[in-house]
Each structure stands twice: as structure tokens, then as C-alpha cells.
Amino acid sequence: MPETKDPGTNQIHLSIVVPVYNEEDNVRLLYQRIHDACEPLGQRYEVVFADDGSRDRTFEVLTGIHEQDPRVKVVRFRKNYGQTAAMAAGFEYAKGAIIISMDGDLQNDPSDIPLLLAKLDEGYDVVCGWRKNRQDKLISRRFPSVIANWIIGRVTGVRIHDNGCSLKAYRGYVIKNVDLYGETHRFIPAMSTLTGARIAEIVVNHHARRFGKSKYGIGRVWRVMLDIITVKMLAGFAARPAVWFGILSLPFIFGGLFALSWASLQFLGIRSDKWITTSTTAFLFLFLGGHLLSLAIIGELFLKTGDYSPKGMLNPTIKEL
Predict the structure, then answer these.
(1) What is the pTM of this model?
(2) Topology of domain 10-237, per CATH?
């Protein structure tokens, strides 16, 4: 990426972060639409494209846009790491007090940016877009999304309609204090609750894809399920590891005690030929339960004596940069 001169960086009010992968036909039109939506705001802004190792001409097109408009910045990965990594890189490089994320496939509408900002000004820290009239395939995209959003809401307690919508607005200090990895970009609202963020949701436009093809399908469902477990652990037990591991240990401990009692009865004559197998099962369950309790103690010691500190607690009194 060519060097750019950007005096007054600290004065940037708005950053638009767009992760892209093989979107050579979309990025120029998307840039123009972002420009048309942001210019009337009268605020200093930048557009950060995070190229996730595109194998087409996406980076060349973005470089040409940057040469025409230095407000456009390009972060490029050497290979494809996934949307979450690209989005995290864009957030890291963004300098705006307010950051808006969106997809690079033209399905999100930049004309919704003023609506997101207006909702943010009502005192919220994160404003999520809701693709109420979603223009995607029913079986492979919309139906799995409905189920996933319901599960995410039930598990995390943050019940919004559309966790997967990339069109969101954040206060910069909030999103920069959220650790993103794996495929956790769709869990940003839930993970933002670790910082005490206030979350709102508004209906946004959604368009059918015009160029290229979707990078997602129904095959990603199992990864989403694993990430739900991770996010639940982080959101609910990051500061209480003893509770997390203690709850996990209970079924093994109770199962072991029950099996041990049954083995005792077998040994006394009810089923004398089976007590060895039952007692072995009992000790295995009790060992697993004790192992989890040991992890609980280690986790508590690490939390109390180590240098762990939830990012959201670093500046709990800050309201606005």
C-alpha cells in the first residue's frame, strides 16, 4: 500500500471498516456509495478496507481508489484468514471516535449510515443493523440464520434479531476493547456486554448480491455452534472460572457417587460379579470431576494473582473520546 499523508489524524470522527475478499467488481461502487453517504454529514471520515488475501484484482482496484482519495486506507493480508481477522485488523487501524463496519459485497447499504449515527447519538454504544427484509437464499442463509440468532440470544442473553449483519456502529473505545478471533465477529454485541456497552438495533436495507458469489454457506453452522460455547464462557464466566468449571464438574461428581454407591451394593451381594466394572466407572467419573475442580482452583488463583484484566475495565468512566 502506498504511503499516505494524513495530517490531523486525531480529528477523524468517523471510520468505515470494510473487510473484503475477492470483491473486485464491488469495491469501487461501494466506495462511491460510502462517499455519497458520508459527505453530507460534514464530519471528517476515513474508509478502511481490509483485504483478506484476495486472489483477484481487489487490492489493485483499492490501491487505485486510495491514490485518488487518501481518506481510503487499505490493510492487506498475505493470505485469507477469515472475516473476523480482517474486521479486527480494520478496527485496529481505524482512527475514528465512531466506527462503522459493513460488508464489501454491496448487500449492506451505506445510505443507512446516518440512521446508525442518529441512534448512537441517543446514548448507545453499539447499534446493530437488522436485515428485516433479507435478500438471501432461504434454505442456505436465512433459515440457519434465524435458528442461530435464536440460540445466540438464549445462550448469551443479548437478544437481537440479526447478529450476522455486519452493518453496525460502535463507539471506538468500545470496539477496540473487544477481542475478536475465530469467527466471533457475529458475536460482537454479546462480547461488548463485557465492557458494559449499551446496545440498540435498527432496521436497515439489504440488497441482493449483484457481483461475485457468497463466501458463506450452511457448512459454517458447526463453527458457529462452537463459537457460541466460547462466547458464553467469556461473557458469563470470564471473571468467575470456578463457577464455570464447577458447573461442568457436577454431572461427573454426581455420576461418580451414584456409580460408587451402586458398586458398593453389587459388592455386598446384589450383583457381585459386576462391582469391579461399576467401581472403575465410578472412579473415572470422580477423577474427571476432581480434575475440573482443580482447573477451577487454578483459574481462580490465576485471576487473583495474575495480570488478567478484562479490557472493558481499563477505562470504565470514559464516555466519549
Answers:
(1) 0.69
(2) Spore Coat Polysaccharide Biosynthesis Protein SpsA; Chain A (3.90.550)
